[in-house]
Amino acid sequence: MGGRAAAAAGFRLPAERSPFVGRRAELARLRGLLAESRLVTLVGPGGVGKTRLALRVADELRRSFPDGVTLADLTAVRDPALAAAQVAAAFDVRDSTGRWLPASLADVLGERRVLLVLDNCEHLRDACAVLLDALIPACPGLSVLATSRTPLDLPGEALCAVPPLAVGAGSEAVELLVQRARAAAPGLVLTPEDDGTLAELCRRLDGIPLAIELAAVRLRTLTPAELLDRLDDRFGLLRRPGSAGPDRHRTLRATVEWSADLLGERERLLWARAAVFAGGFDLAAATAVCAGDGLPADDLLDAIGNLVDASLVTVVRDGAGSRFGMLETVRAFGRELLAASGQAEVVRRRHREWVTRLVADAAAEFLGPGQVAAFGRLAAVHAELTGAVEHCLRTPGEEAAGLAVVADAWLYWAARGHLGEGRRRLDLLLRAVPAPCAERARGLLVAGYLALVATDPETAVPLLEEAARDAQALDVPAVGALATQYLGQAALFRGDLPAADRLLRAAAARHAAVGTAADAFCWADVGVVALLAGDLGSADAAFDRSLATAADPWTRSHALWGQGLVRLAGGDPAEATRLEEQALRLMREVDDRSGVALCVTALGWTAAARGDAETAARLAGAAEGVWRSVPARQPAPLTTMDGHWTGAARRALGAQRWSARHAEGSALERAAAVALALGEEPAAGTPAPPGAGPLTRRQREVADLVAQGLTDREIAARLVISPRTAESHVEQILTRLGFRSRAQIAAWTATQRPSGSHRDHAASPV
C-alpha cells in the first residue's frame, strides 16, 4: 500500500478574501457530481468564477476527505513538463529520486482519501490529462476538481459548465456588484432608485464576476448612472458578432481595456512591465525590473497603490512584508501592453538579470550557515526562476546566461525537490551552448551532480569527465575539484571503494588548494567510504575533519550521521544515539527527507543496540513510512547493518509484537516520526498516531464497519471499493492485530472508541 501523503494530512486551501456570493445551484450540482465521479471539471470562460467556485465546494467537503484537501494552481506554469511537479508540490512530494514523477506521487498517495483542486488547466491540457490518467487509476482514494476553459477529455470525467451569474433586479450579479462596491467605497450610498441601473450594469457586463468586480471599484468616483453611460461608450463594439472569440471573452477583454484607459501613463507602464513576473513580486523586485524609462523609481510606490485601488493588483501581507500579484487575466492583458510598447525584450532581460542576482546571492550561502534561508528565498521566487530560464532558452544570445543561472542553483534543485526540472533545463541549455566555455563547464558539472542525486551514475560519469576536461582546459580549478569529488561519489555508487577513496581524497586536496568550502562534504564522503570498508578509525578521523570546517547544516548532518554509525559499530550506542539525534535535528532543519529517513533508521538501530526492542520496532516502521513519503528506498550498502540490528530487535520481541509496534511507527506522518525518534512531544498541528494504534485510517474505517456486522461486499459498497479490496483490508487487520475472527475485531474496536463518542464512517464520501 502507498504511503501517506505528508501534506494531505493538512488542509492547503487559501483563505477567502471576500464573502462568497450566490452559486447555490452550481454548488449543489458539484457536490452531486463529486459523489458520482472522481474527476469533475469546471469549464467556462476566463473570469466567470471557476476557481472561486471550486475552492468553495472543496472547503465545504473537507470532512469528506479525511486525508486532506489541497490546491495545485497551474497559472504560473508555462512548461507542460512541470505540471506534475506543481501537483506533487501541492502534496509536499518532491522530485528527489529521478523517477517518473506521477509514479512517485501515486506511490505516496496510495489509498489516501484526498481531494485535489487542479486550477487553470487549459494551457497545460495534455499534460494534465496524462498526469490524471496516471494518478486516478492508481490512487483509489483520490478525487480531482479541475478548472479549465476546455474539458480534459478523460474517461470518467464529469463536466460542470459554469455560467455567468444571473442578472436582473435582485440577482446574484447585482448582489456581487453591490457587495464589492461597498467594500471598495465604504461610504457608498445606494438607494432603491439605483436598482434598475445596477441591474442594467450587470446585464451589460454579461454577469461575469471579474468584469463586475473591476467595474465595482469605479463606484468610488462615479454614480451608477455615470458608470452605465461609460459602458455605453466603451462596449458598443461588443454588440457586433465576430470570430475573435466567445462574446463573454470579448466582454471581459473590453472591461480590462476600459480599466487600462482610466489609468495614467505611469500606471499603464507599471502594469505592462510587472506582467513579466510569473507570480507575485515585492517593491524591491518591481524597482529592479520595472523602474526607469518613463517610470521613475520614486513614483513606483504610488503607481502600485493606484493599481491596487483599481483592483488590478492584489496585496498579500505576511511577516516578510507586502507582496503584490495580478489575476491571470489582468497579467495576460499586461503582457499585451508590454508587447505593444516595444520594450518586451528590455524588460525580460532586466527580469533575467534580477533573477541572476538573486540566484547568485543565494548560491553564495549554499555551503554556509545561511543555507536553509537561501533555499527558502529561491523557493519563494521559483516561478520567476523558471520564467527567466525559459526566456534564455528562446532568446538568441541569452543561452549562456541561462546556463549560468541553472548551474548557480545547483544545490537548490536537489534540496527542494526540483531534480527533474533542473536536469531537463540543463540538458536543453547544454545543447544550446555546445562550445567549451566556463558556463558550459559548470553546467556539465551540475548535470553530473544531479544525475548522481537521481542515482544515475551511468549518466553522471560522462558529464563529469567532460566537465573535468573543460575545467582543466579553461583553468577553472573549482569546477575540476568538484568534478573529481562527484566522480568519487559515482565510484561509491558502483561499490568501488578503493577508487572512491582515491578520488575523494584527491578532490579534498584540490578543494583545499582552491580554498572552497566544499571540502567539508568531501571529507564526510571519505568517512562513508571508510565506514563501509570497515575502517572505523579512518572513518572517524574523516568525519572529525569534515565537522571541523563544515558551516552548513546539510554537511554537518551528513558527517554527524556517519560518526554516529561509527560509534554504533564501535560498541557505544549511547553516544551513537546522541550524534544521530543531532544529525536528525539538522536534517529536519534542512528538510532533507532522505536524510531524515537515514537518521530515523539509525536511531532504530541504536535503540536495538541499547536493548529497547519496542522503540526499535516503532522507529523501523517510522523510517519505512518516511522512505515511502520521499518516495525512495534505503540505500543498498546499509542493508547488512539494517538486517543485523532489526533482526536482533525482531527476535527479542517475537513476530507478532514486532509487527504491531512496527505498524504503529509506519502509520506516523513524517513530523510525528521525527518527534518519536527524538523523544519529543508532537508539535501543535502535527498529526498524532492514529487512535486505533497499529491500523491505518482506512483499516480503522473497515474495522468499524466489521463491528457493525457488515459483510465484505457490504463494506465494499459503503466505501466504494472492490469486494476483493475490502477482503484484503480485513485480512490485514486480522494480521496486524493478531486476531483470528471478525468477532475479535468488533470487540477490539469497541475498546478503542472514547466514551460517549460516535464516528459515522458509513457516511457518503461527499
UniProtKB/TrEMBL annotation:
Protein's GO biological process: regulation of DNA-templated transcription
Protein name: Non-specific serine/threonine protein kinase
Occurrences of domain HTH luxR-type (ranges): 688-753
Stored Pfam families: AAA_22, GerE, HTH_77
Record's keyword terms, sorted: Kinase, Serine/threonine-protein kinase, Transferase
GO function terms (MF aspect): ATP hydrolysis activity; DNA binding; protein serine/threonine kinase activity
UniProt cross-references to PANTHER family, sorted A to Z: HTH-TYPE TRANSCRIPTIONAL REGULATOR RV0890C-RELATED, REGULATOR-RELATED
Organism of derivation: Geodermatophilus poikilotrophus
